[in-house]
Amino acid sequence: MKLTFSAASPFARKVRIAAIELGLIGKIEFMPATVVPGTPNDDYSRIHPLKKLPVLILDNGDIIVDSYVIVEYLDELAGGGRLIPASGPMRWKVKTEHSLLQGMLDSMLLCRYETMVRPEPLRWKAWSDDHWNRAWLGMARFEQQGDLMSRPFDIGMIGLTCVLGYADFRFADCGWRKAYPKLDAFYQKMLERPSVKVSMPPLA
Q1: pTM, whole model, 2 decimals?
Q2: I need a surface site. Which of 109, 142, 150, 201 has the fewest CB within 10 A?
């Protein structure tokens, strides 16, 4: 299998963490890819017409897109039910959590594009403020969740780790640690896991 990725992508990081936790990292060849808004990449568009990271390319040439779907595939490959509960109420809780976290990352990425990539005269502050508020309120929701460090490691916890890591990476002065001390404690605990340490985004 091959995985297109960027070390800066929180979505690719999610898959890397999952692959390590599932014992499948040695079966994946990593293919660095550059995807920049407003910059064509015809070679990558032939792999994924939406030009998103990551993509898992199977040995037969088939592709699997979307970080959650890739993790679901890897989880099944490893026997199933390890990172995504196989059935019952917890399955729907974890899947719902992940959907919220995926949306938070989407909003944070849009903020990044709006404030750092779009030319300054064209920036829409109210729009980026709205997207940041979505991510911030999402953090507030998870701050109130009591079972984050008491349950088995799962895709929801991986997703939250990637959200907080991306906040550190791209929005270092946002103050999330002070505002959400329980999330800070959660993230510090997650940093003890080798899969989280090795997948940290670059410092610059």
Answers
A1: 0.95
A2: 150
